[in-house]
Amino acid sequence: MTDFNTKLVHGIPVGDNQTGAVVPPIYQSTTFAYPQADAKVRWDYTRSGNPTREYLEKEIAYLEDGDAGFAFSSGLAAISTVFSIFDRDDHIIIGDSVYGGTYRLLNDYFTKHGLSFTTVDTRDLDAIKGAIQPNTRAIYFETLSNPLLKVTSVKKVSALAKEHGLLTIVDNTFLTPYLQQPLNLGADIVIHSATKYLGGHSDVLAGLVVTRTPALSQQVGYLQNALGPTLAPEAANLVRRGIETLSLRMDREQQNALAIAEHLEASPLVSSVHYPGLKQDPNYQIAQEELNGAGGVLSFELADNVDADRFVNQLKLFTLAVSLGSVASLAELPWTMTHAELPVSARKASGLSPQLIRLAIGVESVRDLIEDLDQALAQMG
Ligand SMILES: *Cc1c(COP(=O)(O)O)cnc(C)c1O
């Protein structure tokens, strides 16, 4: 059994290589020649299959320990393809603090096409049970919620889902297979916005899906080709390259995140810190049990007398920007930036406030990151 860190670098063998090149080639070709009219060809057209994209698809299936992987042009392209496996009148239970774009896709778009959704706190098994209807087909959630970093047990939810014949679908963007492999805990489908940690450098938009069973692989594979939101070969290569350094980046990012969370906890201008790596965090125990690390994102509320806009405007090293998972640290205001798609009532219901700041920690020196936060806080007095 090869260690995970070795798998990241060596991945699957480069099978198509007469040159000795040590990385897989980028095949830009959209079409592939038939040797003769009746030939059964492995490749015919890039939407249906492309060797560069397939390398990444096999790699993510290997890392997530699944049956097959699929690469898409964005995380939302991956999510919309997965939800397309359902039929009119199907009902799906979703986590109460899923990514804003997912919330919009499901509640604005898929409801128009006959799906219905019930939103629950997926940490509460009784709430999930109470939401199950005769037409419920699946439970969908993010293990680590955004931006409050609440941890849902994939093990417990997928066991409950199995009892009721439901699929468990996990958006594993915030953790990556380095920190959790949901299929090994009982989930059926794993989704990534590879735009974040897997790409790792804020320079490629991509989505990935991994399925546990051949039947699900067949369904997702069919839709990937039928709907067509596939990942371009150059972008697939960038994600492949990002994955090689995933554990190195993640190790530094979560080490930095913990030090920053502890530092912010001690500030009188900060009223609360959310990071499941903190011993006093309510999600600490479950994070210890099911995650291999708490990840690189944390959030905190500024005290009521601190102007949150002024605070983020003072940051110099942290860029004020949405997204996460890059080598460079980012700060954002969920209320007006990432979660603006949610109606105010939904934002309040999921515990958000205008005082909340989300930090996506990068690989910089933690001393410089803390100094930047401190100089901004110092100007808030
Ligand atoms: C960013 C993100 C998405 C959407 O991915 P895109 O690549 O931006 O389409 C979905 N889920 C989570 C948790 C995300 O952070």
Automatic annotation (TrEMBL):
PROSITE patterns noted in UniProt: CYS_MET_METAB_PP
Organism per entry: Lacticaseibacillus huelsenbergensis
Required cofactor(s): pyridoxal 5'-phosphate
CDD domains: CGS_like
Keywords noted in UniProt: Aminotransferase, Pyridoxal phosphate, Transferase
Protein name (record): PLP-dependent aspartate aminotransferase family protein
Recorded family membership: Belongs to the trans-sulfuration enzymes family.
Record GO terms (molecular function): transaminase activity
Coiled coil (UniProt feature): none
